Every structure is written in C-alpha cells, then in structure tokens.
Amino acid sequence: MLDPKTNNFSKLKILKKKPLLLMPQTFPSHRMQITDDLNQLLDILPPQIHSIIEQHPNRNQLVEVVMDLGRLPEARFSQGAIDLGNTPVSKEDLQHCINRVGSFSGDNRAGIERTLHRISAIRNRTGEIIGLTCRIGRAIFGTIAMIEDLVETGQSILMLGRPGVGKTTALREIARVLADDYNKRVVIIDTSNEIAGDGDIPHPAIGRARRMQVARPELQHQVMIEAVENHMPEVIVIDEIGTELEALAARTIAERGVQLVGTAHGNRIDNLIKNPTLSDLVGGIQAVTLGDEEARRRGSQKTVLERKAPPTFEIAVEMLERQRWVVHEDVAETVDNLLRGREPILQIRTVDENGEVQITSEQPQTHAPSSLSKSVTSVAPDRPTGWRASGRMTPVTPLGTTHKNGKTLDFDRMLEQSWLHQEPVTEKVRTPGPNGEDLPVYVYPYGISRSQLDQVVELLNLPVAVTKDLKEADAVLALRSHVKNHSKLRQIAKGQQIPIYGIKSNTIPQISRGLQRLLGIDDPKLPEAFDLRLFTQGGNDDEIEALEEARLAVEQIVIPTGQPVELLPRSAKIRKMQHELVEHYRLQSDSFGEEPNRRLRIYPA
User: Fold this and answer.
1) In sequence order, what E strands does 214-284 have?
2) At 303, is the pLDDT very low, low, confident or very high (cuts 50, 70, 90)?
3) Helix %, strand %, coil % for the chain, to 5?
4) Residue 540 and residue 511: Cα distance in Å, rounded?
5) 532-603 sits in which CATH class?
C-alpha cells in the first residue's frame, strides 16, 4: 500500500476514475498493487484493435501492442502473443495512433501525458514511420520488497537484466520509497519520460521525487551533473546508462557522496566487465604485469587482468526473472573473483506464493572457471592436479591403517588438508578492564561498512571485537534508519537483552562516535578526536599527504577567508577520501578536470 501521508493513492484513483487493479498471477497480489491506465493506451489505437483487446479476458496481462505496416497487428502477453483480427495494418491506422500521442523525441519514443505508456516508432530510410510498438507502463507498488534492506543503506545500486524484466518499474518504486518513506531528496534523470511518464507533470507513482527531463538522449550526462550542482539531491535515479560519458558522470556523482540508483545494458556483471564502455561502473579493467614470486603464488601467468578503481556502484542486482534476483552486496569482491577465475558466491532472492522474501546462497561451481580469466591468465584450479593429486601416489612408509587399495587413511587426510584450509573455531575470550568490565566488547554491525568499522577499531585502539553472530554480541551498532524500520531487529535484540546503538550515517566520524558512546568513553565537552588515518584506506604516505593538504586548505583558507580552494590532481580513490574529509567539516566539494589532472575544489559554507 502507498503511504497515506503522501496521498498518492487517492491521486491515482482520481486520475484513473476506476478502482486500482490487482496484480496478475505472476506477482503476489496481497503484497503488491498495480496501476496501468490501460484505457488511455487503448484510446489511441484504431477502433477495430481497441475492441478486440478490450474484450480479451487477459487484457490486464498485456505487455505491448505491435503494429507494422502491411502486417497483422499483434498483442503480446506475458505468456505469448496473438494476432488482432485479419486486417493488415494500414498507413491510416498508424497515423491514427501518431495523432493521439505526444511528439517523438530523438530516440523515436513518445508517450501519453500523465501515463507511463511508451510508444516507440520504426522508420524507413526516408524517416517515415512504418511501425509502432505500444508498450504498457505499469506502476507496481511493493515490487522492491526483495532489496528494500539494501536500498535504505545509502549505497549505490546498479540494476541489470534483459529488456522487459522490470528494471524501469523497480527504479520507479525505489525512487518513491526513498522519497516518501525515507524522506530523502530524490531527483530522477528521465531521459525518455519512461520513469515518470510523459508531460510536464510527473506521474504520482514516483511520490515526492523530482523529475528532470532531457532534451536529447546524448545530453543525459550533462543533466546528471546539472542535477547535482543545482538541486542538492541525496539520491539520483538514472535509467539506461549506456555511454562512456554517462559512466564518467556517474563516477563523478558517486565521488560527491550522492547515492546512485541506475540501470545499465547487460544481463550479468560479466557483461559489464567485457564492455569497455561501461566497465568503469564496476571499477574498470586493466592489464597488470606481476612479479615472478607473485605469479607463482597465484598460480597464474605474469600478465593478468585486475580491477582499476573502486566500483561506482557498491551493490549490483541481476534481475534474472521478475521474482528471482541475484544480489552482489560487494561488487568489488565479485569483480575481483571473476577476474581471478573464481566463481563468486551468489545470493539469490525470491518471493514465494505467500509474498515472503526467501534469501539463499548458491555455492560456486569449482569445475567451471570464469571465461574472463582465460584470455589473459591461466588461473590455477581450486584443487591441485597431477600425479600426487590423482591419488595414485602412496607414501613410502605407511602412516596408519591402509585401505584395500593400499592407500592409507592418514595420507588421505594429509592430501585433503593440503588444499582445504578452514578458519579455526574460536570462542569469546574475555579479559578484565580497568574498571572491572569484561573486554573486548563484541559488537554486531547492522548496515555498517565492515572495512570502515575495522579501520576505526584499529586506529583508535578500541577494545572492540566484531562478530557476525548476533547471539554472541554484547551490543548492536546500526544505522538509525535500520533500527527505525526493522522491528525484527528490535525484537531479537530485546529478547536477548542486547542494547542497540544507532548512528546517523555510514561514515567514519559517525562510526567512531558510536563506538566511543558504546564503550562509555565519549565526552561531549571535549573536542572530537581527529586522526587523518581514519579517512584512509591503505594508510600510505600518498593518502596521508593528500588528506593533510585538504585539511590545511579547509582550516587555513576556506573557513577563515571564505574563499574556494583547488587541490593538486589526485587519483579517484584519493579524491573520494578527500571528499569524505571535506564532508567532515560540513563543506561542499567537487571534482573537475580531465584525467590525469582531475582534482578537488572545496567551497566555503
């Protein structure tokens, strides 16, 4: 159901002047609702086609109507297609439709005002329209239940999938949920008016989100940057990132700390890695020459493929089917595994007949290494091969009881241990603290970046141990939005008498303050501890030097004089650290220039 505070539900009913339709059988009807304004699309069709569709029993499952000159019109449903009558489409039929829709833009798409329908044209060599694809646009409320926990984390999400699987519908619902339920400033870059509908007034399905239209498809990257510079969004929603300029604009936006939610051409992450235009979305790919020792350690050739930079999108969702999605919560780890010939562990999310989300993990297939690594590097298999690994070699001196075939049990055990290394099972170890308390404190992070949490614990030397088991935790550190919207977490913590400490955002300063409050060592009267190493990833001299440059610029120029400052050119990784440091001072910053001279500009408050 729509949030009654936004009043979007009543707006939709007034617009349609009929009750809201239930979801077809392919969706759990008690969990989702759908509105499609089907009558407004049927009104643009020729009368003979209109009447046939209107009388069809499955019209609510209609996907699109195809009209090609000289051929029979066709209605396509989710389960197949049928011909609409016995009369071929004429030029008058096509013109009948063209006269009743908006103007066709540069990408040969038009729409019906205040609806989500899309009419796409096929032209001949002289530019005359000889075919139309009338696609039904539907607003489906509740379709992102499978990934709502990921949407609210604030991390950037990339949606992948074949055409027609529901990427645009999911984007529309994500924009509405973030704007209405989480009160975020959401801006939609609507290149083809497909997300928020045709016309100047956006469709109520996007809630309180704002929509920016694009004059021509090739200008989408400019509108993306304009949205960040002029309208102060917390979230930007983009449909169909397809060019190198758009990928570069997406990285620029991500460096500014704005959450991105977008779609890209490709069914799986493998497709993006192989696509030189869009590979930057997942970090980019480069060839690296390894030293002899490192090549021997990896069991590979000296020239290998590696990820060039941090991914623009931290999370990727592969929409295999409408109710079966594969989630990669750490795109960097997934890409690294694929490039090294290892199949990543797949997190599969589905919705059962009762509308409940089921999350399962599919183990990688060790016998089929990724094809990405074959062209450049020969990656060693998970288990060794050769005479010893075949099991035909027996020890000279038996070590224990032998089998009938002469091999010993001890030798089998040693052979297995040579390639299977499991982490030892450890128990909680406690030592008394200065005030008699038990240390370390075991913390269960929920929605918190593990790498940033470990970095804060290490640099501040806090007596904290991170656990993945809620039953072993002494306290929970979570984002306040998670605690507010997840009653299940509160119930479990209350039942096990585990306190929950909430922080506002997933940043290093917030994590540091949360841990200090958890340990009872924070004092609001004292100035906040400040350590540049908190904002670094590797802690090397280059990172420290770049952060020190940004700190001096802020404290000695920007704040005292109110003048903007440009820093020295840095890599994308280091610029992101500088952006976080500037945000710590509650100032704005921007990246500009072309690589390798791309640099940071800091603005006064």
Assistant:
1) 235-241, 259-264
2) confident
3) 35, 25, 45
4) 22
5) alpha beta
> Residue 446's CB: how many other CB atoms inside 10 A?
20
| SS3 letters across 454-480 | HHHHHHHCCCEEECCCHHHCCEEEEEH
The H-assigned helical ranges of 314-439 are 331-339, 409-417
Q: How much of the chain, in percent, has pLDDT values that exceed 90?
A: 30
Asked if the domains at 140-362 and 532-603 fall in one CATH topology, the answer is no
Question: What is the C-alpha to C-alpha distance for residues 369 and 382, in angstroms, rounded to an integer?
Answer: 9
Query: Tens digit of pLDDT for each residue in 530-584?
Result: 566 667 766 677 888 888 899 889 988 998 888 999 999 998 888 988 888 888 7
> What are the angstrom distances between the C-alpha of 546 and each of 147, 536, 551, 592?
36, 10, 9, 16
**Above pLDDT 70, what percent of the chain?**
79
436: Cβ contacts below 8 Å, ≥ 6 apart: none
What is the pLDDT, as a whole number, of residue 180?
Answer: 92
Residues 6+ apart with CB under 8 A from 171: 159, 188, 195, 237, 239, 261, 262, 263
CB-CB contact of 143 with 170 (8 Å) = yes
Measured between alpha carbons, how far is residue 282 from residues 162, 307, 314, 595 in Å?
18, 8, 8, 18
Fold of 437-519: Rossmann fold (3.40.50)
pTM of the predicted structure, to 2 decimals: 0.55
pLDDT in tens, 502-512: 888 777 778 88
User: What pLDDT does residue 314 have?
Assistant: 93
pLDDT range class, residue 73, cuts 50, 70, 90: very high
Question: Which class does domain 33-137 fall in?
Answer: alpha beta
Asked if residues 105 and 192 have their Cβ atoms less than 8 Å apart, the reply is yes
CATH for the stretch 140-362:
3.40.50
Does residue 397 have a pLDDT over 70? Answer: no
Closest CA to 415 of 426, 403, 427, 407: 407
Q: What pLDDT is recorded for position 206?
A: 92
- Is a pLDDT exceeding 60 seen at residue 391? no
Strand-strand pairing, 210-213 and 303-307: unpaired
Residue type for 46, please? P
Residue whose tokens read 């489409």: 89
Domain segments of the chain as ranges:
33-137, 140-362, 437-519, 532-603
Give residues with Cβ within 8 angstroms of 290, minimum separation 6.
Answer: 298, 300, 302, 303, 304
Rounded CA-CA distance 50/321 in Å is 30
